[in-house]
Amino acid sequence: MSDQFKTSVDVSGEDIHWDFKDAMSYGGYLGLDRLLTAQKCLTDEHDEMLFIIIHQVGELWMKLLIHEVEGGIAHLRDDEIGPALKMFARVSRTQEQLIQAWDVLATMTPADYLAFRDALGQSSGFQSFQYRTLEFRLGNKNAAMARVHADNPPAHQMVTRALELPSLWDETLRLLARKGYDIPAEAVDRDWTQPYKPSGKVEDIWRDIYHDSETHWEAYELGEKLVDLEHKFQQWRFNHMKTVERIIGFRRGTGGTSGVSYLVKALDLRFFPEIWTVRTTL
Fold it and tell me: Among 157, 111, 131, which Cα is nearest to 240's?
């Protein structure tokens, strides 16, 4: 019976590289010496490590999201819808990792968190410049939000650039205009730092696209990829809000916001409004 199970793997016949003195190693390529020493707990509380790693991993996923969104936008500017769709599909899959991360953080009880919360000072996810960059690139423009990064010039520059550029939704409408759709001029040539104002004319165009998806297949498929992306973003926001409520209730956030009440407000935000409102009138 015991012969059915192995307790070790025989590597004697493998041509394994053992010496990396003059070669690239796994740890060297990934920079693990820096990555795995970036967790600097400020207390001796067991759960602080979980809290730090969850947020650091979240920032890494957001770095990938920004990379993919920027790539997708660049393809849209070049009228290359197919490659853009692939990148937006990857964005949605990456968002699932962020959504599931809240389930891990939710294993921390209120007592676990309160044991080290004071060590955070005024630090808060509200100050994530990558999150703000991502929101701006997707279309939630709010210039006031950039103020919190004023003391960090590289971060402020990154966020300001995202504020001043056309968002993903702006570039989608500009693409449709180049494809011959009658997009209103004010939707494709405006002050990109200002929030987008939904247009009945734009909704009418999306209604036509959805009514005859075979004729407008590229635009239809792009619209559905954007719906999926925003749906996942809303799930992330909702799970964030419920996890905060579960752990700290309705306490004020460390960054000065009202906490759960502030996060609830974000649930009403839309990046791509007309492809949502059109669903009621189809």
Answer: 131
CA-angle at 38, arms to 33 and 43, nearest 5°: 135
pTM for the full predicted model: 0.92
Buried b (16+ CB within 10 A) or exposed e, 135-172: bbbbbbbeeebbebbeeeeebbebbbebbebbbbbbbb
The number of beta carbons lying within 10 Å of the beta carbon of residue 29 is: 8
pLDDT winner (highest mean) among 21-25, 148-152, 158-162: 158-162
Kindly list the domain boundaries of the chain, sorted by start residue. Answer: 45-281
Quote the CA–CA distance of 237 and 234 in Å, as a whole number.
Answer: 5
Helical axes 48-77 vs 81-105, angle rounded to 10°: 170
Amino acid 15: pLDDT: 82
Per-residue DSSP letter, 139? T
Is 177 in contact with 162 (CB distance < 8 Å)?
no
> 3.30.365.10, 3.40.367.20, 3.30.530.20, 1.20.58.480: which CATH number matches 45-281?
1.20.58.480
Residue range 202-253, pLDDT digits in tens: 999 999 999 999 999 999 999 999 999 999 999 999 999 999 999 888 777 7
